[in-house]
Amino acid sequence: MTDISNSPVTEHDSQLGDYFALLKPRVMSLVVFTALVGLLAAPVPVNPVIAFASILFVAIGAGASGALNMWWDADIDAVMKRTRNRPIPSGRVQPGEALALGVALSGLSVMMLTLSANLLAGAMLLFTILFYAVFYSMWLKRRTPQNIVIGGAAGAFPPVIGWIIATGSFSVEAWLMFALIFIWTPPHFWALALFMRSDYDDAGVPMLTVTHGRPATRRHILGYTILLTVLAVGTAFTAIGGPIYLITALVLNTLFLIGAVRIWRRDEDDSEADNFAVERKFFRLSLWFLFLHFGAILAEAALRPWGLGGWS
């Protein structure tokens, strides 16, 4: 992390919304949803009050990770067009305030999740926060083009935590949900990097588009999408799958695979506008991809007590 004290930012009075923005609410919403699906898909019922409290503390932990990430990445956020208006580079929140908020919320969330659920859930939340804030943000992101591949594990842990809240243990099903997010993350972010490459160039972040170029990135997107298709469709035939999930997976993965092939077939001689249109469409589809897969898992879990979910 470099000093941004001399960056050309304007000082503002901090507002509550600025501190909330530090928590990355969009990312937090995905964390909450996937953690809730992991909890509800588990075969052990959870008291609604305990479930609500536990998911709340997972959300706070996710927000803590976001604040720590914004504190550490404030220097590169100030350079990138996509992030230069975030609270720290814009001068609305001081770096020390973001650090203090992230540390405080980390401790609070881990302690309270341990008390409301179980020790293993609290330990997994702590590991997830450290993985994202330290292993990914402070080490991987600026050192290797595999940053988003390995670092993507941080965003894949929430359904595992949700499952542990309910059962107090790990399972194959929990790791299948982890794998869905883990394999989905690289093509999702590489598609973004294809039409935001100048941002990563300017910030000196070794994203695959910067270190290996656009053709290599397109090949990687296709490769990961094929792997994701096999995993996603195969999950339909496990304990968390069923007919609803299978139909959802077949439709979404067909569309996703078509989009990846179109990206892979793009020629560097094509106009930049044409390339961006294909890449943006794939990126937008990727946003729905994860939500709808986990929504289908949730639907199967909701119907299972009535003898309608799954293959039974």
Number of domains: 2
Which value, in Å, is the CA radius of gyration? Answer: 20 Å
Q: What's the helix-strand series?
A: HHHHHHHHHHHHHHH
Q: Span from first to last CA?
A: 53 Å
Main β sheet profile: none
Q: What is the highest CATH level, the class of the largest domain?
A: Mainly Alpha
CATH topology of the largest domain: Tetracycline Repressor, domain 2
GO molecular function, one term: protoheme IX farnesyltransferase activity
Family: Belongs to the UbiA prenyltransferase family. Protoheme IX farnesyltransferase subfamily.
Function: Converts heme B (protoheme IX) to heme O by substitution of the vinyl group on carbon 2 of heme B porphyrin ring with a hydroxyethyl farnesyl side group.
Catalytic activity: heme b + (2E,6E)-farnesyl diphosphate + H2O = Fe(II)-heme o + diphosphate
Description:
This protein is an all-alpha fold and 312 residues long. Helix content is 73%, strand content 0%. It has helices at residues 16-22, 25-41, 48-72, 74-77, 95-116, 119-140, 147-151, 153-156, 158-167, 172-195, 197-203, 208-211, 213-235, 243-265, 272-303. The longest helix is centred in the last third of the chain and has 32 residues, at 272-303. The radius of gyration is 20 Å and the shape is flat. Mean pLDDT is 90; it is low at 5-11.
